[in-house]
Specification:
This protein is an alpha/beta fold. The protein is 38% helix and 16% strand. The strands form three sheets. Strands 9-8-7-10-11-12-13 form a seven-stranded mixed sheet, sandwiched between helices. The chain has a six-stranded parallel sheet with strand order 2-1-3-4-6-5, sandwiched between helices. Helix 7 crosses helix 12. The chain binds ligand TPW and magnesium ion (MG).
């Protein structure tokens, strides 16, 4: 076995199922081994941000490793934003980068793709990954790879591996996966006792499920736990899509002033708020009507549990959930929770289309044809996604990068084989929409709903006086054929309905529905968000 094969086998053994990438001369040697060894399938895309987003989404949807393979410098540095997004949102993304061979720095010449020093790239990635290694020693490589991949899974954060191009084919031993460190059982028991005591004394306990629940594959267990405890469950904005396929007492998505009043009231009046795997960020909590006192919550995140004023370090989420399940009687409680209702029954008339109409149309579509996983970009499309029935969703709800939706949708289809629905704004589509041109080669056939308001509308809501938020009127539907898919422009609700019916019936090619939305027309959820934020700012 050579070093690259050893790495690929280890990736597979740690849960990776495919690789997304773009090669370059520093990467050609290890790409050759990826292709010829056939250990993991390789999907090449067009632009490195798309590679990073697709790999990230493949990790998010399956709860395993996502792999992005690039070349040194121009390739890897082009992916910084995607890796930063994965870091912020705790997605276990493995970055493979080619690198200069050992002797190459001795030539006395600066090397192409070099930024400042040959080590600059390594240093830059150090800031946005939780572990790194340059595989410049074939004897040490198996242990180094084992450590880095273990860090990736344990912390659910990106890691960086640089492969000098003269190392790729050196003989190398197999990677022996690291054994997880034992958890302190006394601390675990004490912590679980304390949590259960708090929850049992709370008048209205609420469990808020965050992204770590999916990252660590705990959805079914968390659903069982909430049933046994008889405790209502919500997700955060970022956690939307969690527990969609589980039998959990899921009330809805907490969005403070932008959300449904029932959910907001439930969370903000709770005296036992259990934040399970929830990132404590502004998009989740800054919109609170009544500020949530974090000191009174129970927080399990980043391998720690904080209750009131003290912290139990080194308690992995999986161990915590397992022990709680073991301690709670295995009988489901009989109780009911209010469930957020979603609009159905689009009136297919000649009226212009609002984002909320799109949500209604998607609800009708899924009711008739079954649920589809969704990849959403940033923008009003993500707020609109909150009006769609609970289904698997990947989106940059916290880091909020544009350009995620389309490549993430491709990542979903590659990783699951399921046909995805992609929600994307025109501004975001201008960034990475062109990745759709790769669908034909791989047989991917996502349905893309493009919210075309000829505008950076989200920005306009914050600063209506600026004309730079006006975009041109691009005819994206026209462009679809050139990229190997079908495109249609829709201007009315009846056109939207027939386009969706046709798209769902046409498999094997991507279906782009370019939806005209008048400038200034927002989804009901974004309108509530804007009004709420303005109200909160006025109070401050
Ligand atoms: C990579 C800043 C946040 S929202 C937005 C911008 C420019 C406008 C989005 O326009 P789009 O959607 O896609 O047409 P909509 O519904 O608002 O009309 N660069 C990156 N990410 C972010 N978040 C920005 C800029 C931004
Ligand atoms: Mg727009």
């Amino acid at each position: 076995m050579n070093l690259t094969e050893s790495l690929l086998q280890a990736l597979k053994a740690h849960g990776a199922r495919q690789i997304f990438g773009i090669p370059g001369d520093f990467a050609l040697p290890y790409f050759r081994i990826i292709e010829e060894s056939k250990i993991l399938p390789l999907y090449t895309l067009s632009h490195e941000p798309g590679v990073g987003f697709a790999a990230d989404a493949s990790a998010r949807i399956n709860g395993g490793l996502g792999v992005a393979a690039v070349t040194y410098g121009a390739g890897a540095l082009n992916m910084i934003n995607s890796v930063a997004a994965a870091f912020a949102e705790k997605s276990p993304l493995v970055i493979l980068s080619g690198g200069p061979g050992k002797g190459e720095s001795r030539s006395g010449l600066l090397l192409h793709h070099q930024a400042k020093t040959l080590d600059s790239q390594f240093q830059i990635f150090k800031e946005i990954t939780c572990d790194q290694v340059r595989l410049d020693d074939a004897v040490r490589a198996p242990a180094d790879i084992a450590r880095v991949l273990a860090s990736c899974l344990r912390k659910s954060e990106p890691v960086y591996l640089e492969i000098p191009r003269d190392m790729v084919a050196l003989p190398c031993g197999p990677v022996v996966p690291e054994v997880a460190l034992p958890t302190d059982q006394d601390a675990l028991n004490a912590c679980v006792d304390e949590i259960l005591d708090r929850l049992s004394h709370a008048r209205s306990p609420v469990l808020m499920a965050g992204v770590e629940v999916r990252r660590y594959g705990l959805e079914a267990k968390v659903a069982a736990l909430s049933r046994r405890l008889g405790i209502a469950v919500v997700t955060s904005f970022m956690g939307r899509g969690l527990l969609a396929d589980q039998d959990a007492p899921l009330v809805g998505t907490y969005m403070g002033v932008a959300g449904f009043p029932e959910v907001t009231h439930l969370v903000e009046s709770s005296d036992g708020l259990f934040l399970l795997g929830e990132i404590i960020c502004d998009t989740n909590f800054a919109v609170s009507e009544t500020k949530i006192d974090m000191r009174k919550t129970i927080q399990a995140l980043d391998g720690r549990v904080t209750i009131g004023y003290h912290t139990y370090p080194q308690l992995p989420l999986a161990a915590l959930v397992d022990r709680m399940l073991a301690c709670v009687v295995a009988d489901d409680k009989v109780f009911s929770v209010p469930r957020q209702a979603f609009a159905h029954g689009l009136v297919a008339d000649s009226a212009t289309i609002t984002p909320t109409d799109i949500a209604t149309a998607v609800n009708d579509l899924m009711a008739e044809h079954g649920k589809m996983p969704i990849a959403s970009d940033m923008g009003d499309c993500l707020f609109t996604a909150m009006e769609i029935e609970h289904t698997a969703l990947v989106a940059p709800g916290y880091y909020a990068t544009m350009g995620f939706g389309v490549p993430a949708g491709l990542g979903l289809q590659a990783a699951t084989g399921q046909r995805p629905l992609i929600l994307v704004g025109d501004g975001a589509f201008q960034m990475t929409g062109w990745e759709l041109g790769n669908c034909k080669r791989y047989g991917w056939d996502p349905i893309v709903l493009l919210f075309n308001n000829a505008s950076w509308e989200m920005l306009r809501t914050f600063q209506p006086e600026s004309s730079f938020n006006d975009l041109g009127h691009w005819d994206f539907a026209e462009m679809a054929a050139g990229m190997g898919g079908d495109g249609v422009r829709v201007n009315t609700r009846s056109e939207l309905k027939s386009a969706l019916d046709k798209a769902i019936a046409t498999c094997g090619r991507f279906q782009l529905i370019d939806v005209t939305i008048p400038r200034g027309v927002l989804s009901a959820t974004l309108a509530r968000f804007v009004a709420g934020v303005k109200r909160l700012n006025a109070i401050k």
